[in-house]
Amino acid sequence: MENPSKETEEKWSNDPNNWIWGVFYFNPEDKRITPPKRIPGIGVTINFANPKSILFLIGALLFFAFVVFSIIKKDH
């Protein structure tokens, strides 16, 4: 289900079983990489049950590390 209904999104978001420590979203039923955060309107989170999400997170971290490294290297 790529685009779940609003009712399904609410059900998933309100289900405490889909949240590890109340912070990390883990729902194998939800195929989205970046679903909305638990509190509506404050952004998105990573669905750690989706392998593509893990690759997305690693790619984003590598990109930011490269940017920081480039800035630091340029100053020296």
Poorly predicted runs are: none
Give me the side-by-side strand order of the main sheet: 1-2
Q: Over the alpha carbons, how many angstroms does the gyration radius reach?
A: 16 Å
Order of helices and strands: HEEH
Percent helix, as a range, is: 40-55%
- Proportion in β-strands: 5-15%
Task: Quote the distance from N terminus to C terminus.
Answer: 49 Å
Extended strand count? 2
Task: Produce the secondary structure layout.
Layout: H1 6-14, E1 19-20, E2 24-25, H2 51-75
Antiparallel strand pairs: 1-2
Describe this structure in words.
It is a single chain. This protein has a two-stranded antiparallel ribbon with strand order 1-2. It is elongated. By secondary structure, it is mainly alpha-helical. The chain has helices at residues 6-14, 51-75; strands spanning 19-20, 24-25. It has one domain. 12% of the residues are buried.
Structure at a glance:
By secondary structure, this protein is mainly alpha-helical. It is 45% helix and 5% strand.
